[in-house]
Amino acid sequence: MTRKIVIDPVTRVEGHGKVTIHLDAGGNVAQSRLHIVEFRGFERFVQGRPYWEAPVLVQRLCGICPVSHLLAAAKAMDVVVGAGTGDGLPPTAEKMRRLMHYGQIFQSHSLHFFYLASPDLLLGHESDPATRNVVGVALTHRELAVQAINMRKYGQEVIAATAGKKIHGTGAIPGGVNKCLTEAERDALLHGPAPLNADQMVTWAQGAVDFFKNYYRKNKEFVDGFSQFPSNHLSLVRADGGMDLYHGVLRGVDADGKRILDDVDPQDYLEHFREEVKPWSYMKFPYLRALGPEKGWYRVGPLARLNTAEFIPTPLAQAEFEEFKAVTRGKPNNMCLHTHWARLIEVLHAAESMRELLQDPDILGGELQVKGRRRAEGVGLLEAPRGTLFHHYRVGDDDLIEMANLIVSTTNNNEPMNRAVNCVARALLTGVKEITEGMLNAIEVAIRAYDPCLSCATHAYGQMPLDVTLLDAAGAVVSHRRKPGR
Amino acid sequence: MAFVRFMLDGQEYLAEEGAQLVAAAKDCGVYIPTLCNYPGVRPKGACRICTVLVNGIPHTACTTKVVEDMSVVTSTPELEAFRKSIVEILFAEGNHLCPICERSGNCELQALAYRYRMTVPQFPYLFPKRDVEAWHPKLIKDHNRCILCKRCIRGIFNEEGQAIFAFGKRGDRLIINIDPETSKDISDELAQQAMDICPVGAILRKGKGFDVPIGRRTYDQQPIGSEVAP
């Protein structure tokens, strides 16, 4: 008897997705897929709107990392208004945008690790699902929970100061920004009363990395072995190979570290990328054109970024980077749960970067916006919390947007997430007669490591109940378990 | 200059004879909401949101002149409900997507919606299919947001004194267009005046968007009406 297991939707991720696992008559996993079952259509309804609306419009894709979309669209429109392809902005404008972006990385990564992922690590992925959540973490690890809330709050305050408000601000506009910081705003973020100041955030970020390393030492076998598979990795890096989450060139490496995409200008992305459509998902499957869909898929996000970058340009994060790289002797790291480690190193890098920027006088004044010769097309890329984010627009002579193409981070991770699901399903479900809730959660643990934002990726709204149905070969329901959503 | 006595919300005031009731009330520190009214532009009474009771009879305050012994009531539960309904109708009738509108924070319609605590309109959204007119080198006319208040038609003229905005079509398809002839050589200043005279975000200057940060927009500072009656 073959069986089909459905996890619908996947929980503790942004948006709607479901997993189906087909078991053959021998109980072996025949096929597993992550389906994205929502459709949003932002690429279509930005068409016909004035180009300067694009940043504020497309950021409505998401309430978790709208800043990423705001900035990627603004970067694309920088090109359109003739403000250069990433290096033409006045120092104040670029630094304000970077500060906004690092605030975003800091709050989003903190949200993901502490609120969404940590219940699995702290409480165990097979623990009681009724308490395996952020409330459970708060009850058992109060100090950590308070720290997590404050870290997220600080990131949001940085965003509010730079973008105008915490969610869906307007700070980045084509050709620059619409504000710089006042001294009072700067002082509040840099030297504000504890714990909401830059030094405390660096200290807590360092503590978060240490927390994971301590967990790793105790659970090395599990962390290393869980959903490990070779893949390509892709991200932006600085021209000198350093990590840069705001701007750079595209670099790809394979599972052994060989460069498969070397320092490509984001404006040329279409020459190097293609997207495949599959009938069972609203989310596309991007791949490197030169390698084709079979071999050209890649991972993006924190793990990929630490695999492509040669160094991190802030001292504390660099020290952690070196320790991280030592685990794989400098080779790319293909271990899924190491993504959390990489993510926390980026939290540290973001904290250090924010402190550095807040100490820079340029953020207190200077030219805010530049424009030059108008162009018809612009591409804006940046490293969003979940990975490389592509925005591409074509604008008519009448200033209305004619075409938009968004390849969001989660879309880039589509194939890796499917592989991760398959990897865990095969390891845990093969030949098993009774499938427990904990086993199914392990599949979600693998997906969560990518911090997917499914709403962004498909361009819906709704609740996130967990609905698992076990069907026999004829499609009859053998068992059904449902956890209501919020 | 002759002055007349009149009653405003139960109190006696003096006003210049023939003064517009909206302006006279403002001088007395009483706020009467408006949308189609604009200082310096001949009043039209198009939107009806300034409706008050003059000697017990509803009148639009923008087109009513103050006369001796008139008694004006500017606010009753019925009047307030009426005004809220007008705001709701305007929202339901067009496509007003505040989150992506350049005018958000500076929009009089949005500010009035906040004043009247509008959440969801009591009327069904029509979601009309409307165009964005973008052929003009300096201006965009977004028909999705236009409330047909005619402020632009009545208040924006070229150097020859010709109106640069005009009605097009009829009935429920009525729109306000940019006149290609009279608007041909308008200055940046006039384009800005056109954008400023629009109470919503229906007239936009090309290339100009979101350059006033959140927190410094007109109604970030204080709610509409509080400049008259704090």
Question: Which descriptors would you attach to this protein?
Answer:
A: 486 residues; alpha+beta; 5-stranded antiparallel beta sheet; 4-stranded mixed beta sheet; 18 helices; globular; B: 230 residues; Ubiquitin-like (UB roll); 2 domains; 3-stranded antiparallel beta sheet; 17% strand
Can you tell me the residue ranges of chain B where pLDDT is under 50 for at least 5 consecutive residues? none
Spatial shape of chain A: globular
Radius of gyration of chain B: 18 Å
The count of strands of chain A amounts to 16
Number of beta-strand segments of chain B? 10
Question: Going across the major beta sheet of chain A, what is the strand order?
Answer: 3-2-1-15-16
CATH topology tier name of the largest domain in chain B: Alpha-Beta Plaits
Query: How much β-strand is present in the residues of chain A?
Result: 15-25%
Q: Classify the beta-strand content of chain B into a percent band.
A: 15-25%
Structure commentary:
The complex is a heterodimer of chains A (486) and B (230). Chain A has 486 residues and is an alpha+beta fold. Among the domains of chain A are: 3-36 and 413-483, no CATH class; 229-334, no CATH class. Chain A is 43% helix and 18% strand. Chain A has helices at 42-45, 54-58, 66-80, 91-123, 134-140, 142-163, 183-191, 198-218, 220-225, 269-272, 292-295, 302-308, 315-327, 338-358, 409-412, 414-429, 437-448, 454-458; strands spanning 3-8, 18-23, 29-35, 172-173, 176-177, 232-237, 249-253, 259-264, 273-276, 285-288, 298-299, 377-384, 387-395, 401-407, 466-471, 477-483. Chain A has a five-stranded antiparallel beta sheet, covered by helices on one side. A four-stranded mixed beta sheet of chain A has the order 8-7-6-11. The longest helix of chain A has 33 residues, at 91-123. Chain A is globular. Chain B has 230 residues and is α+β, with helices and mostly antiparallel strands. Chain B folds into two domains: 3-75, Ubiquitin-like (UB roll) (Roll); 83-209, Alpha-Beta Plaits (2-Layer Sandwich). In chain B, 22% of the residues lie in helices and 17% in strands. Chain B has six helices and ten strands; from the N terminus they run ββαβββααββαββαβα. In chain B, the strands form three sheets. In chain B, strands 2-1-5-3-4 form a five-stranded mixed beta sheet, with no helix packed on it. Chain B has a three-stranded antiparallel beta sheet with strand order 6-7-10. Chain B has a two-stranded antiparallel ribbon with strand order 8-9. Chain B starts with a strand and ends in a 9-residue tail after the last helix. The model of chain B has no long low-confidence stretch (mean pLDDT 96).
